[in-house]
Amino acid sequence: MYQNEVVESQGIKIRRRPPTGPPMHYVGPFEFRLQNEGNTPRNILEEIVWHKDKEVAQMKERKPLYTLKKALDNIPPAQDFIGALRSAHQRTGLPGLIAEVKKASPSRGILREDFNSVEIAQAYEKGGAACLSVLTDDKYFKGSYENLQAIREAGVKCPLLLKEFIVEAWQIYYGRSKGADAVLLIASVLPDLDIKYMIKICKILGMATLVEVHDEREMDRVLAIEGVELIGINNRNLETFEVDLGITKKLLEGERGELIRQKDILVVGESGLFTPEDIAFVQEAGVKAVLVGESLIKQSDHGKAISTLFGRDISK
Q1: Residues 92, 80: Cα–Cα separation, whole Å
Q2: What tens digit of pLDDT does each residue of 256-280 get?
């Protein structure tokens, strides 16, 4: 009960798991429906999180935390994700690009049939991407941790973001063991205490955390958390999947924008970025990096797609 009160007080609408289990004894259809109304996800994000909760429980049984911690002793240190974005911004005068390796999405379905994660990652790097984001969710995005590991082992030098729906610290250790240098934390899913705890774990592992927000309340919560260095503003409402670039501008105006500058937080614009005008709009709002997936992944020439998006070649 205490957990629910904390979540509600922070304005978190996404429930971590179904509130009630299935009935323990036989009940009639009407009674069954009444008992299970709360067990229906309210939106796609909640559905993903509920599935992830079960998936992680199964994965943890197969790979307990102590085995992951052992595996971390034998891998090279994490790369500087934030440093790569800052230096790209300084070099080009444009937002540093986090290019996303993504096969599918719940709203758009399959984005690319002929999907080779390593080839796509190499093309993005050659085209001027500062960092890469790799989807690891299988059910909804057709991604995998194997893709992440394959990209890292193929010699791609860009720092890698674990693009996953994080509900437990175990996933961070697992992602690190597969070569991730940074991890996504979603403020509409995680209460403040979880975000603080996970940022601490990432710092110990040498990883960056990209904390994603969607509205003013989430931005205010995240700005109050110590140790946040990288904030992503998602222009897509994860409950309705509608996109509005104005969200970035709104969240970076006035006192919030001032506080972000004072804390030297790097802001990443996410979703709805398709043209040089879109990039210019979010950069004008105060963004120093952008995360782009769909508008790049669908093109046959990924290097050319990056140049088209930014209005010029950013690889030099």
Answers
A1: 18
A2: 999 999 999 999 999 999 999 999 9
Whole-structure pTM value: 0.92
Contact 120, 103 (CB under 8 A): no
Q: Measure the CA–CA gap between 246 and 281, rounded to whole angstroms.
A: 9
Q: How far apart are CA 297 and CA 119, in angstroms?
A: 11
The pLDDT of residue 22 is above 60: no
Read off the DSSP letter of residue 223: H
**Amino acid identity for residue 258 in this structure:** E
SS3 content of the chain, % helix, strand, coil (to 5): 45, 15, 40
Q: How many CB atoms lie within 10 A of CB 192?
A: 17
Residue 117 · residue 152 · CB < 8 Å: no
Residues pairing with 234 in the sheet = 270
3-state class (DSSP) for residue 312:
coil
Residues 12, 206, 260: CA angle, nearest 5 degrees: 50
Tokens of 149: 């590991």
Token reading at 52:
């992830």
Distance CA 159, CA 78 (A): 8
Quick one: CA dihedral 9, 172, 143, 102, positive or negative? positive
